[in-house]
Each structure stands twice: as structure tokens, then as C-alpha cells.
Batch of 3 targets.
Target 1
Amino acid sequence: MNELIYLLKTVNTENDIGDPTKTLTKEERYAKKLEIGQREFYQAAATGLKPEIKFEIWTFEYGNEMFLEYEGRNYKIIKTYERKMEEKIELTCTSITNKEVMAYGNAQAN
């Protein structure tokens, strides 16, 4: 696991006068970058998804985040696959903008 990724969460907060706001938090994780297989790519495309990048991290480090950042780009996690025997989880992602991350609202917090 030699790639640095950041798991992203949007947290609902309030500003000084009580207006609701969203804050983006980042959790640093080390991951292994994986290849997206041809079969996986075409199956996702058939359902309207476009997998671009996939990572593997330790299962205990994943808190159901919906987004991640890698090399300055934001990605939405479109599929997870847990390999229980190895205690690892694969995160298959598609690229998005920061505005899209903030628009999704609350991701589940740890």
C-alpha cells in the first residue's frame, strides 16, 4: 500500500449565526492502486457508471465514505467490494468535482 489517498466526508455544521453549512473533512489513508478489469468496466458502463480508478485499503480504515481524493482529484466511490478473508476492501471510483462532493450532503461519519 504505497499510494496516499484521502477519504472525504461532508459534515453538516452551523456557522456563527446558526445557518446550516457543510464542511469537508479528509482522512489520510495509504492504499494500493488496482487495475479496473475489462469485464468490470463494461458491466458498470451498462448501468451508466464509468469506473476510472480503484484502490484497496484495510477494511477497518473505511467508514462508508462516499468520496475520496487522489493526486488532487476528487472521486465518488461507486462500488465497494470487501474481501473478508484478507480484511481489505476495494473502492471503485469515478471522477467528480468538489462542488459535487459538497452537494451530496452528509456522508456517514465514523
Target 2
Amino acid sequence: MDRERALVLDDGTVARGRAFGAERSVFGELVFNTGMTGYQEALTDPSYNGQLLMMTYPLIGNYGVSEAASESSGIKAEAFVVREHCERPSHRESRMTLDAFLRDAGIAGISGVDTRWLTLKTRERGTMRAGIVEADAAEEALGKVRTMPYPDAQNLVGEVSTARAVTLPFRGPGTGDAPRVVAVDCGIKRSILQNLNSFAEVVQVPYSATAEDIMALRPDGVLVSNGPGDPAHPAVMSTTVRTVRGLAGKVPLMGICLGHQMIALAFGGRTFKLKFGHRGANQPVREERTRKVVITSQNHGFAVHPDLPSELELSELNVNDGTVEALRHRELPVFSVQYHPEASPGPRDARFIFGQFQRLVSAHRGGG
């Protein structure tokens, strides 16, 4: 017999549905993702730390869970909200059901709720605090979600970053002469590491690594990764953002998503929280010089304020809402993108960004 579970929002909404996954109550920030596929990649993306992930596509779990699709060592979202979860997936690479995947990770899920209505509500009111609890505990949970802080008040980056440096050797042609890229792990996705590793040896370091720590590794380039939470959190400003500023001018820098926001902050820019964020695989981005538009995958709740410091140039804009999508430094080899060029499993339009970084790294090695 299906167990009833309730999704409780801080505006007083109680949406009742069926329980799947682990039997536990959980609280966080309800966000929605518009992707039609990629639920496993989204669940395991560290950028969802602290959040209850809701998919807008109505049928989730129909191709199961595979060994190769995870973006990290396990599920990083706090819980999963779907219209319908498929109990009998069909795919040659599937190794388990979505329900089993959640149960094994201790993650609660709720199905049978109207995700379309909840998405429209979120777009109207903005991102809300929420909880998933047993149905008879909904009233008690309502008091908690109305008074608890948003998860981004915590140092969410510190919860998902690697604890120690990890080296990924380059195994391609010309192995002995490969460049070295340091990836500052603020919650990095596995597919970003794979893209970097396709042309370089990669050293993955904690978010708290200093500029001195990183330069001691003799990098040819540094990437500042995606991750969860507020880029202006004091714990992040005093570590990663300070490190970015210390590295500027010494080595080529690239930022992705949270890393993009940190680069802006490092040069005196500002960030702000979006009403409901950009999460999905269909965000159009326009390059301002060429006016070329690419479709991108995105997952972020904060954005860079368009009033930029004079050192930085706005290079790309979001076609839908005009938010800042890419920056470049006017003099130094520093650039960043708000979207995800690795785009696993989304559109691959923007994958050429890694080629741009590779050329910067090569120029630095050659003394250019």
C-alpha cells in the first residue's frame, strides 16, 4: 500500500502525494528543473546541495539509473519531487530503478503532486522554503518551514568540496608534455573534470586552497568550478574569492557557474539572488560581439549584477531575461561563463568553451 507524504511550502501550501525513496523527513529550498531528461545527472550535481529538486517533466525514472550518468559520488539534492515516477524503467544500461537509487542514498521522494502548478506558483512567488514529511506531520512542519533560514545561509560549498587534492593523470597522446590544470572544487561536476582531462593533467583541490597552494602546483591554468549556495557567503569570500584575486595575472583563469560569480566578486563586482533561478537545458545565450545565440544548460540561483567593475567586460547575455551570462577581463587571461559548457546531458552548443580555455592554457605555456 502506498504511503502518503506531504510537501509543505512556506506560503502555507500543503501538496499531498505518494512516498518513494527513503523514509525520512527533509527540509530545504524547493527549486524546479525544466529538463526532459537528465534526472540522474541533476540529482548527483553538487549544485543542488540544500535543495528539494522538482522536475517539471511529468514522467521521471523511465530509463532507470546507470553507472555512468552520475555527476558526483552520490545524490547531492536533499529530496526529489515528481509528478510520476516510473517503477519499471526500460534502458539497456539501466542498473536500478529511481526508487531504489533514492532509497540506497537515504533520499526522500514524493510523487503524485501537480508539479506544473507548483512550478507556476514558484515562478510567481519566488523560490520557497519547503519540507517533505509524513502526511500527518504537515501542520507541525509548516511552522518549521516558515521560520527556518534558507539553506544558502550555510556554507554549502564546504559540504561538497573535496577534502584533499586529487590528481587525474592525462592519458592522451603526448602524455609527457600535457599541461596541468588546477580545478578549484566548489562542487565540481564529473563531466567538467572529464572535459579538462581530455587535454590536460587535472589537479582537483579544495575550495579553501590558497593562491600560494595552487601556484605551488605549477599550473598552466586554473578553473573555478560550479557549486551550491551564495557566492558572497563569508566563508567563500574569505577563501575562494580571495584566491581568485590572488591568482589573477599569474595564470589563465576560467570560471563556470558559481566560479563565474566568484570571478566577478574577486574584481569588485556584485551578485544577487534570482527570483527562481535558471535550472534546465534550454536557456538561450547571445554572444554580444557576433550576436550568435547558443542553447545552454544551466543550474544556478544567483547571478552577477550587470553593473560591472571597469576591468570586466560583459560578453554574453541571457536572451530570456537579460542576465549576465559571460565575462572577460579587458587585459588579463581571465573569462567566465554562467552556463554549463559540459552540458551533461543537455545541449552541446557551448562545449567549444573548453577549447577556448585550452588555447589560453597553451598560450600561457608558450609564453604568449
Target 3
Amino acid sequence: MKHSEFQRAMREEFGDVYAGVLIRDHWLARYSQTAAEVLEHGVPVRDVWNALCEELQVPVERRHGRGLRDPE
């Protein structure tokens, strides 16, 4: 997953404004950091997306994001 795909999936799932809030402020329990901090430390974008989806209970059928390729 590319960073641009992550941004698009976040906006499509959570909306323009709330997506930014989640990336900046939501504390990911798995990493004990926010998504923004985790991404800065080089964690793969797909892992961050999956962690957010799990914690925010995004249904599995929507975890690929509209317009994203299915995971290999």
C-alpha cells in the first residue's frame, strides 16, 4: 500500500476531516503511538491501516478501501 492509497482509503472510510484527526490524534494500542508517529518511524503503511481498521472496527469487506488493490 502506498502512502497516497492510505490517505485516500482514510478519507473514503472516515471523511476528509476525521481522517486527519485519526491519523494525528488516535492512539494505536498496538504501537503505543499515534498513526502519524508510527508512520514517521517507518512502520509500513499497510500495517498502520490494518491497525486502525482493527481498532476502529472497520468491517473486513471495507478494509481494502474503494479504489485500492486487494492485498496479495
